Structure formats: C-alpha cells, structure tokens
Amino acid sequence: MGFLRDRPIRQKLVLIIMLVTGEALLLASAGMIVSDVLRSRNDLARDLEIIAAIIADNSTAALQFDQAPDVAATLEALEAQRSIVTAAVYDEKRALFAEYRRPGTSRPIPRQPDRGARRARFGDDSLALFRPIMLDGEEIGTVYLESDLSEIEESVRAQSLTVLSVLVISGLLALALSSGLQRLISRPILALAETARAVSERRDYSIRARKTSSDELGQLVEAFNDMLSQIQRRDSDLQSAKEELEHRVEERTLELRQELLERHRAERELAQTNVELEQSNKELDDFAYIASHDLKEPLRGIHNYSVFLMEDYADKLDADGRAKLETLTRLTRRMEALIDSLLHFSRVGRVDLAVDQVDLNDIVAEVVDSIGINLKESDIQVRVPRPLPTVRADRARVGEIFYNLMTNAMKYNDKPEKWIEVGCKEGTRPPVFYVRDNGIGIPQKHIDSVFRIFKRLHAREKFGGGTGAGLTIAKKIVERHNGRIWVESAQGQGTTFYFTLDQGA
Amino acid sequence: MALLRRTVLLALLALVPLVPAALLGQRAASPEYQVKAAFLYNFTKFVEWLDARPGERSPLRLCVLGNDPFGETLDGIVFGEMVGSRPLLPERVDAGEPLNSLRSCQVLFVSRSERARVREVLESLAETPVLTVSDLQGFLDAGGHIQFVMQGNKVRFAIDQAAAERSRLRISSKLLRLALSPSEVR
Question: Of the candidates A209, A215, A208, which has an alpha carbon nearest to the alpha carbon of residue A185?
Fold first, then answer.
C-alpha cells in the first residue's frame, strides 16, 4: 500500500471503496461461476441419467427379441441431443448390441460395460455413464452414454459474460457512487487542510475552520479551532510582550545615544585641551630655547669681560676686588652651565627620536667606559647580574638615561664599599630596568621632587656638584619613549631608579 | 436371465453333433423353437391382461395346444419365473381335450398339428383374454394375435393389435415397434 501514501485523500477513499467493492464483486462472481459450473455438471449428469433411463426402457423389448436395429434407431434419435458424443447398448452377455456416434466424431466406444461405473463419471473433457437395463427385476443389458462438456463450457461462458457485464456496470456504478460519497469524508478534511495552510501562510490565527458535521471530523474541526484560539491568544501575548520589549529597547537606545553624544563632546573637549596643552608646552619649549639661546650671548660677553678685567686690571684692584671679580667669573660659568642644561633639556623635548635596535649591554658598557676614571677614583663596583635585552630606542638618549642615573648613583654615595647594580626585572611587560646603589638614599619628603629641574637636595659643591637637570632630562627621555620612571629609596641605605621603554620594545 | 438361459441352451445345442442324443433327452427342441420358446416367454412381459386384478397371485398359464415342438426347453425357460406377481406355469393341452378348457390359459401357442381347426379354436376364444400365438400361415387372418415368421434364419413376429384389444389385452408399444405389420405376413 506504499504507493497510496502520497496520493490525495480523495483518490485513497475512491480506491479503497473500489478495491473493496471490486473484491466483493469478484468473490461473488467467482462463487456464482463455481456454483454454476457445479450446477451445470449436476444438470448434465442428471440429464444424462434421464436419457440413459429412457433408452434403457425403450431397449428392453428390442433386447429381449434380439432386435438390434430397433435399438440403433432409438440411439440415432440422440442426434437431437448435440452434447452426446457416443452411446451404446450392451446385451445380457455384456456384448455390444448397438452403438451410436455423433456425426463427425470417431471417439472409441468401450467394448464392454464397466459395471463399476453405475453413476455419471466426469473425465477430462467428457461425462460417461453406464446404466443397467432392467426388466421385471432382471438385468437384461446396459446402456452407455458419453457426453462432452460443451454445454457446461457454453454455460460458463455465458455466465462469465453476464458476470463480467455485471462487474463492469457495478464497478462503474461504484466509482460514480464512491466519487460522490467520498466527499462526505474528504471535504471536511480538505477544508481543514486548506484552513491550516491559510493559517500558516498568512500567520493569521483568527481564521476558523467551518464545522459541517457532528461526527469525529466535526470533533477534529472543533479541536483544531480550539487550538487556533489558544495559539491566537498566545500570539497576541507574545506580540504585546515583543512590543513592550521594543519600546524598552528604543528608550534605552535613546539614552545610550544621549550618553554617547555627551561622551563625544567630553572627548572633543579633552582633545581640544590636549591640543592647547601641547601648544602651550611647545611654546614653553620654544621660549626656553630662545630665551636660553639668546641669554647665552650677553652672558658670554659678561664672562669675557670679567676675564679681560682680571687679566688687565688685576694689579689695580685690591684683594677684595679680585675676589669679587673671581666670584663674578665663577657665577658666569655656572650661569652658562645652567643655560646649557636648559638648552639640552629643551632639545631632548623637541628633537625627533632616532629609533633603532639597541643592545643595552653595549650601552651600559659605553657608559661605564665614559665614567671609568671617576669610578676608579671612587672605588665603585658596577654589577650587571644578567645580560640586558635588546630594545627599540634612540641609542644616544638611552645612553644618556643610564649615564645620568649611574653618575648620580656614583656621586651620592658615602659608603666605604660602593656599588651600582644595573638590571632588568624578570617577567614584566614592558621590561622594567633599574639602576640600584647603596648610596645615601633620598628622604621620603623629597621623593616627589627629585625629577624637578635644577632641584638640588644638597649644597652646591657637596657630592661633586652638577646643574640639577640630569634626572629631569632622564625623565623627559623616558617619557619620549612612552615609558615611565619612578624611584624607591631608603634613606642611608640606597636608592633604586626604575624605568620602562615602550618604544616598540 | 431368460435370454441368458436361451443363449446357454443355444450354445449347448451348437454342441449337439458332438454329444450323444441320449444325454440331451428325447424332447429337446430345434434351434428355431428354442428361440420361439424364449419369445413366447418374453411376450408375457410386454402384454397386459386388462381383466387381471392387481396383485393377482394365481399362475399365469402358458399353454401349448397340439404336438409340443418345444419339449423341455419351454419348461426350462419358464420354470420358476414370475410375470409381475404371478408365477408362470407351462401346460400342454392335448388335441382331444374340450376347447372350453383353453379359456383358463393366459397364453396359448397353437401348434402346427392344429392347422385344420385353427379357426374353430380361435372362435371358441373370441373376446376371451387369452393371447394366441402360432407359427401357422394365416394365423392372424384366422383371428390370432401373434404370428411367428422366419426372415432368413431370424425369427420375427407380426401382431394384430386390434384383435388383441378385442380380447382385452394391451400390447406394449415397445413390442409393437418390433413387430411386423399383419399385412407383411399375409
């Protein structure tokens, strides 16, 4: 029945009805034909027995008086009975007395009667019969008759034709009836299917199927409609929930947009401030450069003239005058050093970095070289516990950082065994470098001001002097490399300066 | 059975030349009369005596008038046989007996020896239910019912149905169909 599964329900119903009807009709027809065959055979056997009885009765006298021609004449009359093929009469001695053959046939006739075959016996294509001829209770001979089955065949043929016509007519009738009647079932189902399709296509849950009957299909329609009502209710709930959610999202979006606008404005303001700040920084740098550059010129003149005075008029001045003049010369030298530092600081802030791969081991070695004499004088030990990495940085400026930090570490140390340790902390990103000493340390209250320019914590000539710009310049260089510099110190025990270089390291 | 017996006798007769006459007995019939004796007996089966009561038990007499040509053959055929409910009884009637005695017969065979007084005998039995049979020429003309004739070596017979009916005898159509018409034997 697999082929049926995908057929429309109408065809299924019609086919089912037709199959059942056809099967019933076929069975009935087969039954009719079988019963007809059986009846025909019975009829034929009975007819044959009647004919045999008549012939037997008619043959008694002829047998008794040995009149074979009379019997033969009687048998000739069988020609009217077309179905009889052969016939014979045997006498008391069971010898053939008279015989008959239907014209045109040459079927053999038994030479002797078969006493066992008293009743009609069906062969493949014939019905044969032996019947004793009785007279006054005595058997005086035997009649033999053989009939073909054409009568039965004809009857079956006629019957089959009738049955076939009945089959065709009732089949057509059943088709017409079932085509009409199947609508009783298929129409509500198809209507339901159509409704279901409309609902699912249009997503319209207000559509309802029409109930046309009160049977199971009607119940199905009701159940379907109930289901649709539930879905409709849920759908509307869902719709309102969705609308509420959308509303909320809209509100929130507005709020967010507002916040974003405000943030943008703040960022713009910040950028503006930054630009202004940079501008003022640059102006400050420019001012510092121009001022110091322009200041150097007259300072050079003052210095030269104070030297000329000392050379040409030393003998004309008293000791106090000479001392004052020497102080003037010293002050101009100091002034020049300060201005040079300022210029240098200004340049570090303005000139672009020449970034390259820099091996810090080389740098530290160079710095140690350049301050080597001083290190020897102070008996200072320089330690580099682990090899330093290679970083991307401006070679000259990074050297300056190490130079400034290491000279400071060397200068501010009053211990008998002095040391400086240069290294890199492990496992940090970006790498944190440090320069550590066991020097005098920095008091906690001054920690924050060590990077201020020209800030000196000690008397001018104590610990080797200096302009007080070294740490400021180091900080500037670190910042130019996007790094950070900070200090940790314990007074009297030592100081550690840390810094990072984030210039593509 | 009758036919069988007849045939057996015929067969025995065929052996006659080989068997001493003494063994067959003095009164054995000729083959022709063997057949005629059987026919005589067979006639009783196709004739109805209309006056006989249903279930009649008295013997049905089969009489031979004059010189008996059948001998023991007839007795052999008829002995113990019944026609309907009546036993068959063969009887010989001498020529000298009164004709009245013939009225008690149901079948009467008139022997050739009685040729001279056939008419007299038949007239005495006029309209009496006695089936008269003979092989005398002109028997039917004389008022008899059945006359044997020879056709070649075959025994045939003619029947005067009208005469039989006058004697209140009904002869079966089956028998009549086998019979020659009276005109054929004149």
Answer: A215
